[in-house]
Amino acid sequence: DGGITQSPKYLFRKEGQNVTLSCEQNLNHDAMYWYRQDPGQGLRLIYYSQIVNDFQKGDIAEGYSVSREKKESFPLTVTSAQKNPTAFYLCATRGTGVSYEQYFGPGTRLTVT
Amino acid sequence: AQSVTQPDIHITVSEGASLELRCNYSYGATPYLFWYVQSPGQGLQLLLKYFSGDTLVQGIKGFEAEFKRSQSSFNLRKPSVHWSDAAEYFCAVGAPFTGGGNKLTFGTGTQLKVEL
User: How close does chain B come to A76, measured CA to CA in Å?
Assistant: First the structure.
């Protein structure tokens, strides 16, 4: 079954702890993205990666880190430096070529207390 | 820099009524435009896209959108809304990154409620 998997669906952490969100895809897509979604603010880009071992900061990268060691995987770490980490996090992929369209995973809701 | 405006935060329509969701974009070149739909707690699903050619594009679930360059708009329409269409709708414009690759810039979304 092809697609994008994000796990877990819900994640709870205490303030001051780092937490890693998983994103796996079997679409053979080169580019992968992480977005943060807050009510009334749409989607904001955190990081993106066009190929393995390369990634770039998006609009709100502070307090986050990523790695891209495999084409299929693009984990996002929310560090303790992120001031407001509670949000809905979405991973997306994009295929090769000129197309801009992105395909989204089901998301992870992170709650930090 | 590109931007997208969705002026309506909430819209309520009766089941069976027609629907139009507004989207205005700002981008200096020919835009790549998209509409996505999101059910509560879920990811985004692509409804339709415009790259070039015919300015009226058809999508899934009976939706269509019309690109109007003169008005910088890409409004989403459906002739008869079903209760299952209740969701949040996002308009997006695609543009290249300065350093390579490309990105989508999203509007803030329109929440659609359908009254039975």
Answer: 17
CA distances from A35 to A54, A60, B78 (A): 17, 9, 28
CB contact under 8 A, B90 and A94: no
From the list B41, B45, B108, which residue is nearest A40 (CB)?
B108
CB contact under 8 A, B94 and A58: no
Strands A43-49 and A87-94: unpaired
Closest CA–CA distance from residue B110 to any residue of chain A (Å):
9
pLDDT of residue A14: 92
pLDDT at B61 over 60: yes
The three-point CA angle B9-A21-A31 to 5° equals 75
Q: B-chain residues within 8 Å CB-CB of A43?
A: 44, 90, 104, 106
pLDDT at A6: 97
Nearest chain A Cα to B43, which residue? A106
More confident: B65 or B28: B65
Kindly report, residue by residue over A3-42, the tens digit of the pLDDT: 999 999 999 999 999 999 999 999 999 999 999 999 888 8
Residue A1 has pLDDT above 60, yes or no: no
Task: Sort strands B64-68 and B56-58 into parallel, antiparallel or unpaired.
Answer: antiparallel
Q: CA-CA distances (angstroms) from residue B40 to A41, B37, B43, B87?
A: 15, 10, 9, 7
Nearest partner of B33 among B60, B70, B12, B2, judged by Cα: B2
